[in-house]
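Troubleshooting log. The previous structure file for this entry was overwritten by mistake, so regenerating from the original sequence record. Sequence copied from the archived sheet and checked twice against the printout by T.R.
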Amino acid sequence: MHAEALRLYREQFCGTCHAFTPAGSAGIFGPPHDSMRVVAERRIREPDYRGTATTAQAYLRESLTDPAAYRVPGYERTRFLMPAYTQLDDAQLDALVSLLLDLPPADGGTP
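Regenerated output below.
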């Protein structure tokens, strides 16, 4: 379904920190990536959100390229902070964002 995007996800070692069922990853240093459409839409509405995104897609792109714009509560003080993936081109960023948004929520929609 998203074979190339999953390959990219793995090549960038996203699963080292993030749990994501489709990638078979169980990382614990960052927030899980399952149900990201629902989670991203909720995060941009939270009162403590300090980023500039207004859509789930923009939130995920911001999280990849400027992760310091908003640190998810509970993960802001980890010693393994999310790096900025500025080495990725627009097509690669779009592929990762699409992968995270297009999969159905793992739990049926409950964040």
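The helical segments are 3-11, 36-43, 56-65, 90-102. Archived copy saved in two places this time.
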